[in-house]
Design goal:
Radius of gyration: 21 Å
Number of strands: 0
Largest sheet: none
Helix content: over 70%
């Protein structure tokens, strides 16, 4: 006769701990900011001045670091599956801090590329991944709604990174700013990993979502987890390939347009200040889309939501040639934010549903690698198309074919039996 998996567990906690885990994951996700593009951006001009490098050289070092960091991310997910999110978060937090210390000591192109590799690998990649996985095991039926809230909240908190790092750079210089960022990561992430994170609900006598008894959807998820897909099996399935195309398209196009956004908007007649202010409606669109998609992820088929995210992105590209000061600029940035952020809650929601939890770190690590690599290609792709086609509007028309094709392909995604 089968025994209840909770019968030999430790004494159950009185309150469901999953909500606390989700809150702590939001904080650790926000701490990836110094390794994200928005965090690095404030140090570019000071680095050019101190190192005597040209802007293209710094951009090349950043591209190398992003690609190398993405490649190094591949084994991290499987390692997290083996050691658990609690232990992994401690080690990743410590290593990310060392990467930020390395950035404070760069002396030329080679060391700058190494520094970028470390912070992109450990910050943008590994810490983001372990923060997401720490939530995954605690929710099943509510997973989409939880990620629909946590993903945009992380993005909103992360938007403070340029301000805080910019103030540190202005007050103490770029090298001290990196050291302060390292200290902040160590003081926040390592204690959260050690004292706050718990790997699975069963470790404290609880069940996912806080239910005292398994819910119908939890029973289905448990059945899936008994026969989990390996990473190799998962990444060759058509549903993963089609979703990966959506992830790559969104990352490449949204990052490319974001990278050139000031140039696009000032060329359309906005002042530099007005163009910078347009990041506010863009973040609003991203947060709104994340909340809506997360709430619907547990109710609607994946193909509808993935195709919808590509529709937002297509509309944003169509708007590039129609941007003018006023409502057009507002609509463009809202659509761009929605197209770039709609898929964020979908990846951590769909992958466990499709492939189980046993190897979810390795599987989600592949999706993270795809996202990082595609985002690295975005700025240069938009720049080359704009140069060859005669401007951003013409480049955007060429780019519309990608989300259109990807969105149509996503409609072929089927849910597992």
């Amino acid at each position: 006769m089968a025994t209840d998996p909770l019968s030999d567990a430790v004494k159950p906690a009185r309150r469901f701990i999953g909500w606390r885990i989700a809150g702590l994951a939001v904080i650790t996700g926000a701490m990836t900011g110094p390794g994200q593009t928005i965090g690095v951006s404030v140090s570019i001009d000071p680095l050019i001045a101190e190192l005597g490098l040209s802007r293209p050289q710094v951009a090349a070092a950043y591209l190398i670091g992003t690609l190398a960091g993405g490649a190094a991310l591949l084994p991290v997910g499987s390692w997290i599956d083996r050691v658990g999110t609690r232990r992994a978060m401690r080690w990743i937090g410590a290593a990310f801090g060392l990467g930020l210390v390395a950035m404070a000591g760069v002396r030329g192109f080679v060391t700058l590329a190494i520094g970028f590799t470390l912070i992109r690998w450990l910050g943008q990649g590994a810490l983001t991944l372990v923060s997401s996985l720490s939530i995954t095991h605690w929710f099943e039926r509510r997973r989409g709604r939880v990620f629909g809230v946590t993903s945009p909240t992380i993005s909103g908190l992360m938007s403070l990174t340029p301000l805080l790092l910019g103030l540190a750079v202005a007050a103490y210089g770029v090298r001290v700013a990196w050291l302060l960022a390292a200290a902040a990561v160590w003081l926040v992430v390592i204690p959260i990993g050690h004292f706050g994170i718990i790997d699975r609900p069963s470790d404290v006598g609880q069940r996912p979502d806080g239910f005292k008894r398994p819910s119908p959807t939890a029973s289905g998820a448990a059945a899936t987890a008994r026969t989990p897909a390996t990473r190799g099996q998962a990444v060759t399935q058509p549903r993963f390939v089609l979703m990966a195309c959506v992830i790559a398209t969104s990352s490449m196009v949204a990052t490319g347009l974001n990278f050139h956004q000031i140039s696009i908007l000032t060329g359309a007649g906005l002042s530099a200040t007005q163009a910078a202010a347009m990041f506010v409606p863009q973040v609003t669109g991203m947060i709104t889309a994340g909340l809506a998609v997360g709430a619907l992820a547990d109710r609607l088929p994946a193909r509808v939501l993935l195709a919808g995210s590509m529709l937002f992105l297509t509309c944003a590209l169509v708007m590039v040639g129609r941007v003018e000061p006023g409502w057009q600029a507002f609509a463009y940035t809202v659509l761009l934010g929605a197209g770039g952020g709609a898929h964020f809650p979908l990846v951590p929601t769909l992958l466990p549903r499709w492939f189980g939890l046993a190897n979810i770190g390795g599987i989600q690590g592949v999706s993270m690698l795809i996202m990082v690599a595609a985002s690295a290609a975005g700025p240069v792709t938009v720049a080359l198309l704009a140069s060859g086609a005669g401007g951003y509007a013409a480049a955007a028309w060429w780019l519309t074919a990608i989300p259109l094709a990807t969105g149509l392909g996503a409609l072929w995604i089927t849910e597992p039996a």
